[in-house]
Each structure stands twice: as structure tokens, then as C-alpha cells.
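Structure representation.

___
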Amino acid sequence: MTRSNHIFRPVRPYDGLILQVQKRGKQRILSVFTRQEGVLRLFVSERSRGRSGSGAFMPLGEITFDAAEQGDILSLREYECRGNEAMMNLTWDHYVYSQIFVEMVLHLIPYRQVDGGVYGLLLRYSRLLAAKDPRVLTIIAGWQLAGLAGFYPDVDTVRVFSSPYGQEGYYFGDEGLADMREEKLTPEIRQLWKRLLQYRWEREETLRFSAKGLAALERLLYSYVEQCSEKKLQSLVLLARP
């Protein structure tokens, strides 16, 4: 008889927010940002069962659960979900913004990296969806997420380059890539950039900005996240959907 090389760990309790619900054949896989261990991926098996009153799996819904671990595989056991009502009432574009934010979290935060700051930001984001404009919320939270992930930009000195051929996206660095030209960021945009990074959620500060300034920082955010993570934000294509 051969011995298994897998290490079995006892069932553990967790609490967190659901980021993604994926289907692979008949099986579902949850990506959850937990307070205890950061991002975890969980297989929903036949042994998984919801507690009394448990809701359905929903992105940005809160969940408490027990999980069993064998090697690198975690299986969801008993759970209780608290669905995010705001998610059910979003327009298509606003829903896409919520998915862009989720994707930024998954791109920027390494698997199983505990981060109380990111966890708190996720909670605020999920709970403010019903009260704030999801686009503005995503832009502010996205820049703060990049900072928490260790990619805090030096707003006063950062240089931004773009392609002269009409290709979307920006490059951040001391020098541009071949055939790139430098974008001249106005003092107003740099000042708004700082304010977004330093925005204090608990004080519910009032932000005043131009539509042009916000749009510029939105475009810069997506390029910055893609450059830092070296991954494309797939959800962006959904914003162009007719």
C-alpha cells in the first residue's frame, strides 16, 4: 500500500467576500477574499451545504464558511451567504464596473496574501454600491487598491506615455517605449489623482471633479493596473458592448 503525499488539514472556519463564481462542467469554483488568508479558491462539492437561511453565491456577497483542505485543494463544506442586494439592481454598465474592480483585486493581490487593508476596502466597496455611483466608486477604490498592493504611484513625478498610432493604453516609466510620446498631465489631474488616493471613506468627503478629469484618471487606472500586474483586464471589453 502506498502512502498519499497529500497533507490533510482539519476543517477551518473563514469569513470573507465572494469575488467570482465560475462553472467548470457540473462543478463550481468560488474565489473568495477571506479575512483569515486573503484570496482562496474553493471547490463546491456534493458535501457543501448551506446553513439555514443561506443565500445564493453572488459576487461581492458576504460569506462565512468552513473549508477542508487537502494539499492545494480547498473544498467548501458548511456555509452561509448574505447576498449583496445592490448587485441585483445595477444597470449593465454599473455591473461591469463591479466586475472590473473584482478583476483588479484578483490581478493585484497574490493568492493567500493576508491584507486587512484590502479586506476593509472590499467591504466598503461592496456596502457602498447601493449608495454611490459604481463608476466613481470603482475609480477611487481602484487607485487605493493599487496603493495597498504596493504600487503607490508618485503622482508628482510619474511620467506617462502613449502610442501616437491611436492605440489605447498608457505606459508609466522614466522613458517611453519605442515610438511613444509623453502625455502632459495637467496640475488639476495630478491634484485630483492625489485626492483619490488619499480619500477617507469614513469621513464621506465630498469630491468635486470635472468629467474630463475623472475620465482621464479612469483610463490611467486601467493601464496602470495592467502594467503592474502584467495581466489584461478582460472585463473592460464589456463596457464597449452596445
